[in-house]
Amino acid sequence: MSKEVELDCMGEACPVPLIKAEKALADLDVGDILIVLIDHSCAMKNVPEWAREQGHNVELEEVDDGEWEVVIEKVK
Amino acid sequence: MGDQSQMAAEGGIRRSTRTRERKKKKNQIPFGILAVLVVVAIGIILTHTSGTRVAFFWMLGNIFGFVLQRSRFCFTASMRDPYLTGSTSLTKAVLTAFAVTTIGFAAIKYGAFVKGLPIPGQSYVVPFGVHTMVGAFMFGIGMVIAGGCASGTLMRVGEGFGMQILSLFFFIVGSLLGAATFGWWKLTFIVRSPKVFLPDVFGWIGAVVIQLLIIALLWIAADKWAKHKNASGAH
Q: By the 8 A CB rule, do B153 and B167 touch?
């Protein structure tokens, strides 16, 4: 049973969301989903880029003006 | 964005629990048009009160800020991400920008030189020495903690990111401290350090070629670094 974890990084400047996401994802199992909430425009670029480079499935959604959710599905 | 969330529901990652009720976003286009009109109006007022030079700076600043924001160009990330994630896409972007400006600046300066005019921007050719390294080291630490360099901080204050207003405040405090102690730095290091203008050393063509060559080598190194980091999977 895959689980879904939400990681709140609102108000955190780059690179904090990235490092937090990295640590949170390491604790998850394959198939789990990590949702990173961010409002720093820089993290909206480097979190998805990092996760894609790692080979995970990534989706970016702008949930409000200047607020994004990065949905990462761990695949390996 | 409606299309995107629909796509996510249909084809992408299946999210089980939450499909949070989305607030309807305000249409930003009227605000954008209004902002452009205000910027242009201030530009026109500046032309009349302070001259075209100031108005030109005003427009250039606005355009630079716009490009910086839309492109998510980040000098901090270009130096930090190679260590952090192994990503060098921004490093390569910065190096590309340096290569373009190298050619542009050389053209402007050489253009003035061949006409026998004073070369513009020569007051920015400043001595290089211990003070440069100390400053670069402090700035490097500061920008990573603050989450942005000078231009990045200003841009994110404009975006309304609260924490970076704090960065801006201490950015000003730091600048004031720097200005207050500048006399000491000048006497201790700056006046004793060499001032190098590459065209004086290598000639105009040599300077451009050597600088572009160094940038190209750094670009290749950055590219290889990213591939190496990704291949090893470690970071």
A: yes
What's the predicted TM-score (pTM) here? 0.77
Unique residue bearing structure tokens 């513009």:
B120
Give Cα B96 distance to the centre of its chain. Answer: 12
The ipTM of this complex is 0.73
Predicted confidence at residue B190, as pLDDT, reads: 87
Cis preceding-peptide flag for A15 (omega within 30 of 0): yes
Alpha-carbon span B60 to A9, nearest angstrom: 34
Q: Do B159 and A41 touch (CB under 8 A)?
A: yes
Q: What is the DSSP string of A3-31?
A: -EEEEEETTPPTTHHHHHHHHHHHTSPTT
Q: How far is A45 from chain B (nearest CA, A)?
A: 7
- Chain B residues with beta carbon closer than 8 angstroms to that of A65: 25-26, 28
Res. B23: pLDDT tops 80? no
Is residue B168 within 8 A of residue B153, CB to CB? The reply is yes
> What's the token pair of residue B208?
């451009």
Judged against a pLDDT cut of 80, whether residue B234 lies above it is answered with no
Please say whether the beta carbons of B223 and B89 come within 8 A. no
DSSP character for B123? G
Measured at the CA of A45, the angle between CA B173 and CA B89, to 5 degrees, comes to 95
Task: Compare B19 and B86 and report the one with higher pLDDT.
Answer: B86
Condensed to tens digits (0 to 9), the pLDDT of residues B128-170 reads 889 999 999 999 888 888 878 888 888 888 888 888 888 889 9
Interface probe, candidates A5, A6, A9, A14, chain B, greatest B C-beta count within 10 A:
A14
Active site residues of A: 14
